[in-house]
Known about the structure:
Elements: H1 7-28, H2 49-67, H3 89-102
Amino acid sequence: MTPPTSTSSRSESAAAAARATLVRLVDTWGRPELGALGPEDDLFDKIDSFAVVELLLETESEVEKAVGRYVPLADESILDSTRSPLRRIQSWFDYVAEAVNRG
């Protein structure tokens, strides 16, 4: 797969990679009820900290494949119960896209 070249394309590819990773992990975790969550739903309250870390690491790997470079996603907000982008699923996808834009 050739990495996208425009900022918009990279952002879209990163968000798509984040979505695909979540779908795959929901299956791996054996948690089909998580697949029914919508963009406004809170994933942070529905998974444990080990699953958060797995989601983070797997998403970093998929984003790297999608955009052609490693983009760190971990920061202090991920596990913060009030600020985590996982508090709203769409915020997670937006967070990943913004991380790619920041470089």
